[in-house]
Amino acid sequence: MTFFWIIFALGFTYLTALIGDLYALVNPWRVICDGIERLSPGAFRPRLRYPPWLGYYPALAFYMAFIWLELFGQAPPRTLGLILLVYSIVNIAGAALFGRDAWFRQAELFSVFLRLIAKISPFEYRRGQASGERGRLRLRQPFIGLLQEPADHFSLLLFVLFMLSSTAFDGVHETRPWVLLFWKGIYPQLTRFIAQPYLFFVDIYYDWQWAMLFLSPFLYLAIYLLFVWIMKIVTGSQRSLRDLALQFAFSLIPIAFVYNVTHYYTLLVGQAPAILTMVSDPFGIGWDLFGTAHTVRAPIILLADGVWHTQVGLILFGHIVSVYLAHVQALEVFPKGKQGVWSQLPMLVLMVLLTTIGLRILSLPIAAGQVQDPLPQPSSSAEPAFALATGDVAFAPKTR
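User: That's the sequence. What structure does it adopt?
Assistant: C-alpha cells below.
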C-alpha cells in the first residue's frame, strides 16, 4: 500500500516534475508488452485503428476510477493487487488491439498523467522511434515544455481540468461546510419527498459525494470555457472556442501540480520512515537489505505554521507560473498589441479565482465525521436531531 500510494502515486509524480518523463522508460505495462513482442513478433501489430474520437477518454475514465479508489475505495492490499492485475490485462489487451504506441500515448492513465507532469521538468526525454534506437535527453528551461504544443484533443483538456478538480475535491469533501451542505441543506429537503429510514440517506450521501467527484471536471470546464469565451469576445478572434480552449489548456498544469503538492506533501514527508523501512524489507518478510528495516517508524509531523506558509507559497508560485505561461501563449495567439493585452485579462481573472479557491479550501475546518447519527428525538419536533458521527456539535432541524 505504501509503495503504490506514497512512493509511486506521490513520490514518483514529484520526481517526474524534477527529472522528466522517466516513466516512459520504466512503464511496467509497456515493458511487459515489449517482452511479449520479443517472444512473439507481431503480437502488438495494430489490429484496429485507434478511433480519433476516443482520444484520451480511456485515460480520463481510469483517472476518475483511480481517484475514487483513493478517496472512497478503502481497498486492502489484496484488493489493490487484484485491481492492478485487471488493469494490467486491460493494458496488454488494448496495446494488442490498437498497437503499443497509440494505446500508451492516449489510453494508459499513468503514461498520460506523468507525460503532462514531465512538461514542467527542465529535462526532456524522447524515446527512440526505431527499434533499438536510443532515446534522447535534452536540457531546457523549466515549464517551457507546457508551451511547446497545445492540447490535441478535447478529452485531454478534460483530463487537465480533472487534475485540478479532483485535488480540489479531495481537499473539500471532508470539510465541515461541505459535509453540512448535505446534512443541513440537502437532507432535510429529501426527507420531504422520500420516506425512507435514516441509513438510506447515508447511502445517498456517499452517492452524492461520488457524483460530485465525477461531475467536478465538467463544472471546471464550464467555468474555463466561460473565461475563454470572454477572451474570444474581447479580442474579436475568429478562432473557434474549442481551438482557444485547447491552446491555453496546459497553462493550468502548474496550478494543478501545486494543488497536488500542497495537499499531499505532508503525507509523503510523514511516511518517510516507513519508506526507509520498506526499502530494506519490500515484502515484509524480515529482510534487512540496507540496514534500514528497523528504523524508527514514527511518522514525521510537521509544524502547522510551517505547513500553512509552505502551502500558501506553493499555490502563489503555481499561480505566477500559470499567469506567465498564459501571457506568453496569448502573445503568440494574439500578436497584435491591444488584442494581446485584452486577451490576458480573462485568463488572469480565472487564475486568480483558481488560486483563491485553493487557498480557501486549505483554510476550511475538517468535519469531525462524515455521517451523522440520530440523537434522541425531542417530543416537540417532527424531525430527528442529528450530530456528526464522531461527536461534532449537534444541531436540530427546525420544526415545521
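Residues 374-384, 389-400 have pLDDT under 50 and may be disordered.
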